[in-house]
UniProtKB/TrEMBL annotation:
It comes from the Bacteria. Pfam families: HAD_2. It comes from Microbacterium schleiferi. This is HAD hydrolase-like protein. Transmembrane segments: none annotated. InterPro entries: HAD-like_hydrolase_sf, HAD-like_sf, HAD_2, HAD_sf, PGP-like_dom2. SUPFAM superfamilies: HAD-like.
Length: 223
């Protein structure tokens, strides 16, 4: 098998991993603790994808200081809960990542989740051996959290281990992925099985509804 891409970057939440059950549970506890109503499952579209530090401000009108406190509370719940509790891989994604690795295509994560959580998830699902770099946000979600910066860091780490980054592609499910890719001249394949509004795919090079379609864009039989 061959690929039109020299490396593949993966968003994690909503693209590789469905962690929505745990996120909803921890958000409910956090919002109620700070005096806000619990979110509904339908409202998760506002929370999954962007950095939490940003989401508490945008969705609830918190100040940066209040958001810092809310993120710290939420992260403490995550640590106590276990970063992998209730998480699952989207069907077929694990196999696709393994097959890309077998075909010699270097891969990395480019996630807005804190990097320690991304590492825990990749290890839990036995995907770490297939990745040349695991990149996520810094624990405070402020030093390194913007998608454009995370994509740039993922590419930097790949180059540092000798990967050809001349034709990268980012797989994601939110407009943050499209914007972050564009800032680095990285085309984006937008997946529709995550948590997104229909318009968020605008600007993506391609849009796919299932893993089979994604596989077709990432791997092709050698002639």
């Amino acid at each position: 098998m061959r690929s039109p891409w020299t490396c593949v970057l993966w968003d994690v939440d909503g693209t590789v991993v469905d962690a929505s059950d745990g996120i909803l549970r921890r958000l409910t506890t956090t919002l109620e603790h700070f005096g806000y109503p619990a979110p509904t499952r339908a409202e998760l579209v506002h929370w999954i994808g962007p950095p939490m530090f940003e989401s508490f401000q945008v969705n609830l009108g918190m100040t940066p200081e209040q958001s810092t406190d809310a993120v710290a509370y939420y992260r403490a719940l995550s640590k106590a809960d276990g970063y992998t509790t209730g998480a699952r891989l989207f069907d077929g994604i694990g196999e696709l990542i393994a097959d890309l690795d077998s075909a010699g295509i270097p891969q990395a994560t480019a996630s807005s989740k804190p990097e320690n959580q991304v590492i825990a998830l990749m290890e839990h699902f036995a995907l770490s051996p297939h990745l040349r770099a695991i990149t996520g946000a810094t624990p405070d979600e402020r030093t390194l959290s913007a998608k454009a910066d995370i994509v740039a860091e993922a590419l930097r780490r790949l180059r540092a281990v000798g990967v050809d980054t001349s034709r990268p592609v980012l797989i994601g499910d939110r407009h943050h992925d499209v914007d972050g890719g564009a800032a680095n001249d990285v085309p984006v394949i937008f997946v529709r099985w995550g948590f997104s509004w229909p318009h968020e795919s605008e600007g993506a090079q391609a849009t796919v509804d299932d893993v089979a379609s994604l596989r077709g864009l990432l791997l092709a039989p050698t002639e």
